[in-house]
Automatic annotation (TrEMBL):
Pfam families listed in its UniProt record: SUFBD_core, SufBD_N
PANTHER family in UniProt: FES CLUSTER ASSEMBLY PROTEIN SUF, UPF0051 PROTEIN ABCI8, CHLOROPLASTIC-RELATED
Domain of life: Archaea
Domain SUF system FeS cluster assembly SufBD core, first and last residues per copy: 213-447
GO BP: any one term: iron-sulfur cluster assembly
Protein family (similarity comment): Belongs to the iron-sulfur cluster assembly SufBD family.
Name listed for the protein in its UniProt record: Fe-S cluster assembly protein SufB
Positions of the SUF system FeS cluster assembly SufBD N-terminal domain: 139-210
NCBIfam families attached to this UniProt entry: sufB
InterPro entries membership: Fe-S_cluster_assembly_SufBD (IPR055346), SUF_FeS_clus_asmbl_SufB (IPR010231), SUF_FeS_clus_asmbl_SufBD_core (IPR000825), SUF_FeS_clus_asmbl_SufBD_sf (IPR037284), SufBD_N (IPR045595)
Length: 476
């Protein structure tokens, strides 16, 4: 490919993420977090009284809890001031809950998702798509054949109304309670939008469903909630994509994810995040896995000024299993603190964690993880592998694995490597006709292959291209 073609491809990919739209909101809350704000949001959504009560309890939790500051090497959160955040912006879309035809969206919103390539991906690789713009889902569609089998894929605000019993049972009660951490409490108070996925017993959804979350406005917060319930013997793959343009003021993303994996069920949750470098990404994600169930977390964190993200699985039933594959990329001014947590609470449970991180131009990456094996969880096994690749002496990469083993009849393995790209590797590839940049890109592509091979081809290509752009300093 010629250099001109390379430049055009780079420019097109940049344009997909860096464009901005003038805000056109039907309703926007005032800055800050107060009881009055929460009541206004709940009223605007016409929520049942029990949801408003949960929001207000979460607010009280948030107000009592301190900001996390005492973890070694954690990102600096001193700039995060919720009083300066606009917590809720309802876009100007005629149909509340989202339309099911892209042509029915306002031109400015439709143009946003066209540029991001979401409608094209839906046609080629997905069984259903939800698209959130600011604080609410504006598009939602599921292929009819899955609806006929009882599969539900809709936005969370709609699910509160139409599947109230299920949401009331699962929403922030068993998996991620507001008391878990300060940002979970913030999320519980101010959540808006997100996805609800319900897969009936013995149903396999053989094409992924995807939700895409776009923050367009400066100085806003996005707090979508994802709730997935996979009944006994079912299977589903959920893909989450995220992006925001760069502004001078900081944005805050504090989503919540709760996954319930039934007996013999299988859920894969894949994330490709490309937040702009003025965004603080502070999520809480957790799954509860029943007997012989299988949970997989596939995560790619490319953007944000700071990320603190540690997807967790509670292996509740005998024979439950969990697999984490994560990649983090930190460039100048970025601190990407990611990892995984696994709780082995039953016998014969199994977990694997594979973490890949890349840092350049003074960026910082960190793997922070926890594996807990409870007393009585006999014949359980875990394997943790952390690999870090640095481009220069100014960059930093650490691994902080923590293991609590309270049972003797278990198999535990851990391996960690940290290193720079070797001159001899680059020299070898240059001797085969590659220039310096192409040689480094080939090394990195091989380094991140474990995650890209787990994604549908469209998303694997996108992830590789995002990494290329980060290496070139072309985004943000």
């Amino acid at each position: 490919m010629s250099s001109d073609q390379d430049h055009l491809k780079e420019t097109d990919t940049e344009a997909r993420f860096e464009f901005k739209k003038e805000q056109k909101a039907a309703f926007a809350a005032e800055k800050g977090l107060t009881e009055e704000t929460i009541r206004v949001i709940s009223e605007d959504k016409d929520e049942p009284e029990w949801m408003l009560e949960r929001r207000l309890r979460a607010l009280k939790q948030y107000q009592k809890m301190p900001m996390p500051t005492d973890w070694p090497g954690q990102p600096d959160l001193s700039e995060v001031d919720v009083d300066e955040i606009v917590p809720y912006i309802r876009p100007d879309v005629e149909v509340r809950g989202g339309v099911d035809d892209w042509r029915d969206l306002p031109d400015d919103i439709k143009d946003t998702f066209d540029k991001l390539g979401i409608p094209e991906a839906e046609k080629n690789a997905l069984s259903g798509v939800g698209a959130q713009y600011e604080s609410e889902v504006v598009y939602q569609n599921m292929q009819e054949r899955w609806e006929e089998k009882g599969v539900v894929f809709m936005n969370m605000d709609q699910a509160v109304q139409e599947h109230e019993d299920i949401v009331k049972e699962y929403f922030m009660t068993k998996c991620v309670p507001p008391s878990d951490n300060k940002f979970a409490a913030l999320h519980g108070a101010i959540w808006s939008g997100g996805s609800f996925v319900y897969v009936p017993e013995d149903t396999t959804v053989d094409m992924p469903v995807q939700a895409y979350f776009r923050m367009n406005s400066e100085g806003m917060g996005q707090f979508e909630h994802t709730l997935i319930v996979a009944e006994k013997g079912s299977e589903v793959h959920y893909i989450e994509g995220c992006s925001a343009p760069k502004y001078s003021a900081f944005n805050l993303h504090s989503g919540g994810v709760e996954v319930f994996v039934g007996e013999d069920a299988h859920v894969q949750y894949s994330t490709v995040q490309n937040w702009s470098k003025n965004t603080y990404n502070l999520n809480t994600k957790r799954a509860i896995v029943e007997k012989n169930g299988r949970m997989e977390w596939i995560s790619g964190s490319m953007g944000s000024k700071a990320t603190m993200l540690y997807p967790a699985s509670i292996l509740k039933g005998r024979g439950a299993s969990d697999n984490h594959i994560t990649i983090a990329f930190a460039g100048e001014g970025q601190n990407i603190d990611t990892g995984a947590k696994v709780y082995h609470n039953a016998p014969e449970t199994k977990s694997t964690i594979e973490s890949k991180s890349i840092s350049k131009d003074g960026g910082r990456t960190n793997y922070r993880g926890l594996v807990h094996i409870a007393n009585g969880a006999k014949n359980s096994s875990t394997a943790v592998e952390c690999d870090a690749l640095m481009f220069d002496n100014e960059s930093t990469s650490d691994t902080m694995p923590y293991m609590e083993i309270n049972e003797s009849q278990v198999d535990v393995a851990h391996e960690a490597t940290v290193g720079k790209i070797g001159d001899e590797d680059i020299f070898y590839l240059q001797s085969r006709g590659l220039d310096d940049d192409d040689a480094k890109q080939m090394i990195v592509s091989g380094f991140i292959e474990p995650i890209t091979e787990e994604l549908p081809i469209e998303y694997a290509v996108e992830l590789n291209r995002l990494v290329e752009l980060e290496m070139e300093g072309s985004l943000g």
